């Protein structure tokens, strides 16, 4: 991933936090001489350094045991208008850009065809997601024969992470007045993604202030 040092965000704790908050990854591999990708929910285990998920048994990914893969996790992103920058009125030499956060996890794929493993993986994922909703649905709430049939229709995937790269492109290369204008513009849009990007910019500035 191209990442100027100013945008590097390689702290493992922050990378794992982003992956947990946005677990739907694009899983890329080379298959049959061509690049292929699937959207797969991958739940990170920081202690073991792995990602775990499952895919339909019919998915060609289920035949890729041992393949080198890249899982791409994206957080909220937002368009940045040049109209939000003081330079638009001062000299006009401004252009649009995009602010975003992303994590790339590289590793080797292991296909797991084991019902007990799959049930444990599904239970862990469900617990995390239901807990965030304040709900209490559990895998065991569904009829046992139904769950057994669902387990037969999928295989597990586990990726031992070899390299973890994070990138936060959040206007760190701009001056204080420009960043203030961007945050104001994001706030005015009023959508959740823009608010999340503005909050991430605030955290970056707070971290920089603590280090200075």
TrEMBL record:
<dbReference type="Pfam" id="PF04299">
    <property type="entry name" value="FMN_bind_2"/>
</dbReference>
<dbReference type="InterPro" id="IPR012349">
    <property type="entry name" value="Split_barrel_FMN-bd"/>
</dbReference>
<dbReference type="InterPro" id="IPR007396">
    <property type="entry name" value="TR_PAI2-type"/>
</dbReference>
<protein>
    <submittedName>
        <fullName>FMN-binding negative transcriptional regulator</fullName>
    </submittedName>
</protein>
């Amino acid at each position: 991933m191209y990442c100027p040092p100013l945008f590097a965000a390689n702290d493992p704790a922050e990378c794992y936090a982003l992956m947990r908050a946005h677990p739907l990854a694009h899983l890329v591999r080379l298959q049959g001489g061509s690049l292929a990708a699937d959207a797969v929910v991958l739940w990170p285990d920081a202690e073991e350094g792995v990602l775990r998920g499952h895919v339909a048994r019919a998915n060609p990914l289920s035949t890729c045991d041992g393949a080198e893969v890249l899982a791409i996790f994206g957080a909220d992103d937002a368009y940045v208008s040049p109209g939000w920058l003081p330079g638009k009125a001062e000299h006009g030499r401004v252009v649009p850009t995009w602010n975003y956060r992303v994590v790339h996890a590289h590793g080797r794929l292991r296909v797991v065809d084991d019902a007990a493993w799959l049930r444990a993986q599904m239970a862990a994922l469900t617990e995390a997601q239901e807990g965030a909703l304040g709900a209490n649905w559990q895998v065991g709430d569904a009829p046992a024969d139904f769950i057994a049939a669902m387990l037969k229709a999928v295989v597990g995937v586990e990726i031992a992470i070899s390299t973890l790269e994070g990138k936060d492109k959040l206007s760190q290369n701009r001056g204080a007045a420009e960043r203030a204008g961007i945050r104001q513009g994001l706030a005015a849009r009023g959508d959740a993604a823009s608010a999340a990007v503005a909050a991430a910019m605030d955290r970056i500035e707070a971290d920089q202030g603590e280090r200075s």
